[in-house]
Every structure is written in structure tokens, then in C-alpha cells.
Amino acid sequence: MHKRSWLGVIGFLACIVLVGGYLLSPGANGAADLANRHVGVVEGTEVDLAFKMGGSIKEVLVKEGDTVKAGQPIALLDSDELLAKRQQAQAAYQLALTKWEQAKKGVSVTDDASSAQIRQTQAAVEAARAQYEANKNGARPEEIAQLEAKLQAARTAKQVAQTSLDRVKKLYEEGAVAKTALEEAQMQFDKAQAELSAVEEQLKMAQSGSRREQLEAAKAQWEQAEAAYQQAVAGRGQVGLKQLDVQQAEAAVQQAKGALAEIDAYLNDTRLVAPVAGVVKSVAVQKGELVAQGFTVATIQAEGEHFVKFYLDENELGKLNVGQKATLYVPALGKEVEGTIAAIAPAADFAVKKATQELGDRDVRAFQVKLSLHDPQLRPGYSVEWRLEGADRRE
């Protein structure tokens, strides 16, 4: 969108016309009065509207002369292709979300299974070690009594684990619990079974006494249990791999989300809206026309933003300041309007010849003075007169 101003040349020509008319009028008060009068032309801020991308015009929603509000739609580009791409991007995003959720569940399942295996093999190691120690040292009556008590406790624990497993199986079949609960119950039962078997074997060996081959077998069983435990601990690395899968899946989600957001941004750019309130000055396209990126589709004359530029010589600037009020006359309206000095050029734009009694012609620098105008009846192109009363011209 570009802001443009009416050329100052128009003001210069209007100045010549008005000054000429003034000189021919019977009411002219002479050169001194004319010297204090300046003429300019009302200008307005124009905003060019263009699409950020090229395409086919689907609809033009305004026409020349329409009054529009800020944010009001001006024209639309065809968006069918983008909508199809958005559906694809939305599907890809949903798929990425699903894979991410699956990856997170995979971490949980692997972690639970790995932890259960470690606990189970650790219990087997302890049982095998105890068995080996029992075979090595032999059993005393009190140790046999302890093993019998331990056997009874192991049988009770197995029965409890069996009951719990049966109950969880039924709930799982009914869909009342997750699979992880069933796996946990099965693990507890297997652990209880292993402990019962170990205690039974310990009691049997304690009662019958240990032979050399039994001791060697117990040691081998202990070593096997220890190896299984170490393997279970090493298996924890699978959890790390699953966590890496989660990170990769999450990155895919963010990528798909970004692609979807990009298409949404393009879709938003198919809708051209007015950035300011004003009047549509021109419309340069019609429905079905192909336009390039940046091509001016319409131009809006901004509402209430009027100004006029005057070129004053250096001797007239002494009493002028930015923010100072000024009274101007608009012939087209037949009335005076109020303005405010908005800017005074810091450097001269050009020089004009002035005659002096002592030196003849000399250059006098002209400075641009811009006034903002505050009357809603003003229109671009109106002539404006500004009389500087009491200006110190020092000519």
C-alpha cells in the first residue's frame, strides 16, 4: 500500500491563476497586499491497495465513489487451490499428532515392561543366591523351620496373585482396565510363582542335604540369574530409544503445524481489506482478471486527512512555528477554514529573484510550509488562500 500526494505543481498553477485574477479585480489593494497572500491546493492521503500474491480476482466488492470503513473487504482472490492444500495439510497434521501420541504411549509401555523385568530378574538372583548359600552351608533344624514358614507364605502370596490376576483379566475383557494393569498383575503372579518354586527347592535340598553336583547346579543357576538381571538392566536403553522416537514425532507435529499455519496465512492474503476509512477513488480490476503480486487493485482517499502546501520565502518564516493555528479561505466553499502548521521544511526547495534598491536582483530562498486542514467539506483539488497578516518581509 503506497501513500501518494498531489503534485505541488498544481498548487503553483492555481497560485498563478488566483494571483492573476486578483490583479485584475477592481478591489485589489496593490502589490503589498498581494505579497502577503499565498495560494495552495488541497491534497489528500491516497492509499493504494494490492494483494501480497498474484491470482485470479474472484470478486470485487466495491466501486468507485463508495465510502468504506477500515477493515472492510475490498476484493477477493480465488482460493479453491489453497483450500484443497489446506485439507491436505490438516490431514498431515492430524496424522503427525496420532504418531506422536503413539510414540508417547510406546515409551510408557516399554518403561513399565523394562522395570518389571528388572524387578523379576532381581528377585530370581536373590532366590538363586539364597539357594546356593543354603546348599553350601547346609541346613539346621531352625533353618528348615524357617523355610517351611517361608514356603507357606510363598503359597499364600501365589494364591493372592492368582486371585488378583483372575480379577484383572475379567476387568480387562470387559474393557474396564488398561492392558498395562493386566501386564502388571501377570508379572506379580509370575514373580510369586518363581519365589514359591525357589522356596520349595530350597526346602527340598535342606531336608535331603546337599551334594557336590547340587552345589554346582545352584551356583550355575545363580550365575544365570545374575546374567538375566544384567541383560534386563541393559534393556533400559530401549526406553531412551523410545524417547528419541517421541522427540522426532513431536518435531514432525511442529513441522506439520507450521505448514498449516503458512497456508492459513496465504488464505488470509486472498482477502483484501481497507486499511483506513475513506472513499474509493478508483478500482483497477474486475472479476476473473489475473493480477500480479503488488498490482494496485484499488485506491482509497483517506477520510479526513487533508493538507495544503505553501512555499514561503525566508523572510516570512520568523513568526511561524509548528503547531501554530492559521485561518485560510476556500473560494469553492465561500468560507474560511482553520488549519494547523504541521511541518516547516528545514531547508529551502528553490530560490526566486527579488529586486532591491541597493543591489538589484537577489535570490530569496523558498521554504515549504505544510498545514493540516480540519474541515470535513474540503475535497482534494480545492484552492486555498492564506494571508499572512503583519509578516516581516524585510524587502
Low-confidence stretches: 1-32, 355-359, 390-395
Q: What are the secondary-structure elements, in order, as H or E? A: EHHEEEEEHHHHHEEEEEEEEE
Over all CA atoms, what is the radius of gyration?
A: 47 Å
Main sheet: strands, sense, barrel: 9 strands, antiparallel
Question: Could you give the topology of this structure?
Answer:
Blueprint: E1 3-4, H1 8-24, H2 31-35, E2 37-41, E3 43-50, E4 55-60, E5 67-68, E6 73-77, H3 80-137, H4 141-173, H5 179-208, H6 212-234, H7 237-268, E7 271-273, E8 278-283, E9 290-291, E10 296-313, E11 325-330, E12 335-344, E13 350-356, E14 360-373, E15 383-387
Antiparallel strand pairs: 1-3, 2-15, 3-10, 4-6, 4-9, 5-8, 6-7, 8-10, 10-14, 11-12, 12-14, 13-14
Helix pairs in contact: 3-5, 3-6, 3-7, 4-5
Give a brief outline of the structure.
The protein is α+β, with helices and mostly antiparallel strands.
Task: Characterise the protein shown here.
The chain is an alpha+beta fold and 395 residues long. The protein has two domains: 189 residues, OB fold (Dihydrolipoamide Acetyltransferase, E2P) (Beta Barrel); 168 residues. 50% of the residues lie in helices and 25% in strands. It is built from seven helices and 15 strands. The strands form three sheets. Strands 1, 3, 5, 8, 10, 11, 12, 13 and 14 form a nine-stranded antiparallel β-sheet that branches. The chain has a four-stranded antiparallel β-sheet with strand order 7-6-4-9, with no helix packed on it. Strands 2-15 form a two-stranded antiparallel ribbon. Strand 13 and strand 14 form a beta hairpin. Helix 3 runs antiparallel to helix 6 and helix 3 runs antiparallel to helix 7. The two termini are 45 Å apart.
